[in-house]
Amino acid sequence: MSKIKKLRKAIFPVGGLGTRFLPATKALPKEMLPVNSKPLIQHIFEEARASGIEEFIFITGRNKNAINNHFDHSYELQDILGEKNKQLELDLTSNWLPDAGSIAFVRQYEPLGLGHAIWCARNFIGDEPFAVLLADELLLSAEPMLKKMKDIYDKNGGNYVGIMEVDKDQTSNYGIIDTANKNEDLVKITSMIEKPSKETAPSNLAIIGRYILQPEIFALLEKASPGVGGEIQITDSMNKLLETDNFHGVKFTGKRFDCGRPMGFLEANIAYAAENDAGELKEMLKKYI
Ligand code: G1P
């Protein structure tokens, strides 16, 4: 068996326009929307770091500078907090920052799709495996989902996507996988298709926004033609990759919040508030419902 290369790098595609959240996202990147006072992108970054990722590559676009600034020191704010001895607030601004030199921002000039965004990171990934985390999917679980996937990767190598069951009516919102062993936690994937209708979907197992991929995907992305929605879809190239390499789905068993939708975002905030202070939340909600 060939040597399993260490998984060290992660890509965060954050170039999306966030049209489902207008007008909030006219000037504010959707990835900066807060869940429990913390921007979505910081939640996802922390999941990656807690999973052992050491290098972080953000694929950004125009109007996304707030993300760059968030992952930097804020000297004026830190000075003021320091003078006032506000240690807790000071820690919240900066003690979670990645080490200098372990973070990179790459511009995706045109929004040509998720596959294209990932391809834009090819020179920074080189010949190594890498993870991809989609910032609008918040996953709540005791063990970080990417860590669960990485532990399996570290033993076996290959390619992985996070998967979970969705309603049959929802398949046209996701990449859907096919497998012979649907009921297991780790499934061998036999094919994948992006956003199939419920009539044509091979299963109801949807790809959620966590991936571990081998660098061979870049050669496939290079040649990829636009797929669903006229976009270069990562699912199409992954479907080609599984013809020559191992590809598995890892089931997610925690709570998933689709924070790209206003109701999903609200639910994530409620879930976090319930964890912090269920009593206060209940009292507040009673006023309205
Ligand atoms: C993307 C992927 C899709 C995946 C989904 C998860 O779609 O293309 O395969 O199931 O994320 O949220 P998007 O939501 O960007 O349309």
UniProtKB/TrEMBL annotation:
The keyword Transferase applies. It comes from the Bacteria. Its EC number is 2.7.7.9. It catalyses: alpha-D-glucose 1-phosphate + UTP + H(+) = UDP-alpha-D-glucose + diphosphate. Keywords: Nucleotidyltransferase, Transferase. It holds the Pfam family NTP_transferase. Residues 12-273 form the Nucleotidyl transferase domain. CDD domains: UGPase_prokaryotic. One of its GO terms (biological process) is UDP-alpha-D-glucose metabolic process. GO terms for molecular function: UTP:glucose-1-phosphate uridylyltransferase activity. It is an enzyme of class 2 (transferase). Belongs to the UDPGP type 2 family. PANTHER family: UTP--GLUCOSE-1-PHOSPHATE URIDYLYLTRANSFERASE. This is UTP--glucose-1-phosphate uridylyltransferase. It comes from Candidatus Arcanibacter lacustris. The lineage of its organism: Bacteria, Pseudomonadati, Pseudomonadota, Alphaproteobacteria, Rickettsiales.
